[in-house]
Amino acid sequence: MRILALCHKDDLDQELARIGADEAAWDIFQAKREVMAIKVRGLSTAGANILKQTALAGGGDCAVHHSVASGRVRRSDAILFATKRQLSGLSRRLEGQPECVSRLVPEFAVLDERFNNPDLAIRIGRRRIDLGGRTYVMGILNITPDSFYDGGRYSDPKAALDRALEIEAEQADFIDIGAESTRPGSVPVSPSEQLRRLLPVLKLVRSKLKIVISVDTSRARVAEAALDAGARMVNDTSGFPFAPGMAKVIARAGVPCVVMHIRGKPRTMQRKPEYKDLMGEITDWLEAAIERGVRAGVKREQMIVDPGIGFGKRVEHNCEILRRLAELRSLGRPVLVGPSRKSFIGKTLGLEPEQRLEGTLGACVLAAQNGGNIVRVHDVKQVVRALRMADAINGRRTGKPGPTGG
Q: Quick check: is 374 in a domain?
């Protein structure tokens, strides 16, 4: 006998076919393939007890505080362990229970839908781009004098155009153009200076590129002018708080946007960043950012979330984010990850930015494996090739990325 590794649906289907299992039962076995670990916060002692006993009765399990059984704590968080099939049965049983647990049933339904059946499409004009089919690549074009890796290389508009055309030829799906460095310790650049750098480049590239042009800025004025000049997407590294008008600009334009988690501001974000619950805090922060956008008129389905690798995180934080990236699926939105040549790679491998290609490739492949839908990188050609190979191994769509995505 042997233990099967069946993380991919097709692998279990093949094994079921080999033993001649009734095809009508395949979906039942698929529902048992993967156990979900669902964290529930702030239950009363009674609620925690009911949830645990109900989970056990249905074949699942539930971890709660060790003093719940004796009643020595008033509240407890819980980790519920259940397959999709068990969660369905658990929800039915909880519906007739007291409100302290019956209230969880609609939340389980939303979470299950977001996690297992997410709609990962965005719309750009009349085009619909499904970000769930394969891993997409966003090429970085910094037109800044002080970015940590390529600062000063593309400050001249002609040099920027040449690099933009190269990024497209290397089969990126998006190009992200930024006129303000957000490296640790960087100081803000005024909207006027950002536009002085940005608009001449947009004027050159907008008629020559077929891939989607994104503008990397946390300033509403810059985003609005860039959208008027040909950008079709906004990458806001603040998640809306730095520029209260940003969400309204995006809502009026109807374009997709990236909302990114950041602890503090670029100038101060790396001063001893601490977290009690890293992934919980990031998830809550991103959910709040999404809600801010929705209240301002941005459609939820037009938002992409970014956990903010390197933005107020230590090396161990960045590694944990990449390892547990799939948890962001609970938000029901596509996930963008930007590990490219960042300092956590340098500190791990003892390398300067110019030597961090292999570390970047490793981080991008793991990001794709663990739930990333878009990776934002400097080294487009190499990353595209690595991800096409990773997608092929994972059984995802691997058709040659076209210049218009989708």
A: yes
Question: Can you tell me the distance from the alpha carbon of 64 to that of 124, in angstroms, rounded to the nearest whole number?
Answer: 45
- Tokens standing for residue 95: 């519906």
- Which residues are part of the catalytic machinery? 342, 376
Closest to 94 (Cα-Cα) out of 103, 84, 107: 103
Q: Are the C-beta atoms of residues 82 and 3 closer than 8 Å to each other?
A: no
β-pair partners for 127: 124
Q: Helix or strand or coil: residue 118?
A: coil
Domain end (from 71, 91, 116): 116
Q: Are 376 and 341 in contact (CB under 8 A)?
A: no
What number of other Cβ atoms are within 10 A of residue 65's Cβ?
15
Predicted TM-score (pTM) of the model is 0.90
* Predicted confidence (pLDDT) at residue 220 exceeds the cutoff of 60: yes
Which residues, including other chains, have CB under 8 Å from residue 209's CB and lie 6 or more apart?
A: 164, 165, 168, 175
Q: Give the separation between CA 173 and CA 194, rounded to whole angstroms.
A: 24
DSSP 347-406: HHHT--GGG-HHHHHHHHHHHHHTT-SEEEES-HHHHHHHHHHHHHHTT---PPPPTT--
Q: Domains in the chain: how many in total?
A: 2
Please state which of the ranges 87-101, 134-148, 155-169, 233-247 shows the lowest mean pLDDT: 233-247
Confidence bin at 111 (pLDDT 50/70/90) = very high
Domain annotation covers residue 76 = yes
